[in-house]
Amino acid sequence: MERATTAWTSDLGESSGSKWVPAFAHKLNRSYVVYGALVLLPSAAYDELDRLGFGTGAIHANLQRLYELIAHHLKVTHIAVTRPIPPRDDEHARENVIRAPRNFTPLYGEFGPATCSSPPTQEEFDAAFWVTAKQNGIYQTWAPRWTMFSRGNISEKARLLSLPSVLSAVEDGGADGRGCTAVDMYAGIGYFTFSYLKAGVSKMLCWDLNPWSIEGLMRGAVVNKWQAKLVTGSQTLDAAVVGQARLLVFNEDNMLALGRVEQARNLVPPIRHVNCGLLPTSSDSWEPAVGVIDPGMGGWIHVHENFAVNEIEQKAEEVRVEIQRLVEQRGQRIGCEDHRHPQSVAIEHINRLKSYAPGVMHCVIDIYIPPRTPS
């Protein structure tokens, strides 16, 4: 990047109209990210141009020359600016539940059509620009115009690869040859799904509402050589559908997860882990998460939440209490709870993953649910 910006600065010279260049180039050099053939430039550099009154339209030709130099020196074909995922969909002022990158701005290269059908067609998927990156030995694929990619989750992905509760579930399932299953309530492009698979989980059941994320998940599974099956809404989970696929993928609301699991409970290994990875809160998924955990063996729910830094322990306990309530409610409903020996839901660990905003921490709470005691 420094070679590109140095050459660009030299080309511009000392003209009075280029006083903004050194500070702009410094921001680019300090903060950019390369994913395969794509480089993402820091939004702060462009925000500063706007603040100084330098509209990018007036300096378009100068910036295009910069992008050509960046593409040459970094050996990339595409350049863009991305910003945090907006909480609301600007088009309809509704909640941005599919986490679409509405603030993504292509700068250089062909990213495919800017609009698509709902749901997208296979032709639209194929016309988009796709990126593949490798983290922790795992490939992940996404279309940056349509799907978010969070590099800040890399430490949590790595933690799952060696998490004792994951490894023990894999080991327990291997003892009798059944293996174990995990469920990802907000799978996205496979952020955490792929870590469970690499750790040895036999089968994954994955939910996500964003069809672009699902397409990325399916493409990523191919790159990692994991067989995946996309289950449509009309399909019943029978032996023919479940088959040998390590991933069963559902492009639907995760509130349907419990019904799907009940269809397939005897066709998949015991479900020992559930990942609830939506911010700012994953609370809508807690009830189905409790329901899908294997009743005979128990398991773990990994709850992602945003907490004020000075309230982490208190808020984590509130989550545990709510999970406890849901466990007891579920036990009463299906008649498997012995009230003389109620299940005691426990927090095993609180992982302070990363800062989400000033004074706010993205946390992952590992919650253990013991086996149900028959009445």
TrEMBL record:
Pathway annotation: tRNA modification; wybutosine-tRNA(Phe) biosynthesis
GO biological process: tRNA methylation; wybutosine biosynthetic process
InterPro entries, A to Z: MeTrfase_TRM5/TYW2 (IPR030382), SAM-dependent_MTases_sf (IPR029063), tRNA_wybutosine_synth_prot_2 (IPR026274)
Domain of life: Eukaryota
Keywords: Cytoplasm, S-adenosyl-L-methionine, Transferase, tRNA processing
Chief site of localization: cytoplasm
Catalytic activity of the protein: 4-demethylwyosine(37) in tRNA(Phe) + S-adenosyl-L-methionine = 4-demethyl-7-[(3S)-3-amino-3-carboxypropyl]wyosine(37) in tRNA(Phe) + S-methyl-5'-thioadenosine + H(+)
Stored PANTHER family: TRNA METHYLTRANSFERASE (PTHR23245), TRNA WYBUTOSINE-SYNTHESIZING PROTEIN 2 HOMOLOG (PTHR23245:SF25)
Entry's family note: Belongs to the class I-like SAM-binding methyltransferase superfamily. TRM5/TYW2 family.
Function: S-adenosyl-L-methionine-dependent transferase that acts as a component of the wybutosine biosynthesis pathway. Wybutosine is a hyper modified guanosine with a tricyclic base found at the 3'-position adjacent to the anticodon of eukaryotic phenylalanine tRNA.
Designated name of the protein: tRNA wybutosine-synthesizing protein 2
Organism expressing this protein natively: Oleoguttula mirabilis
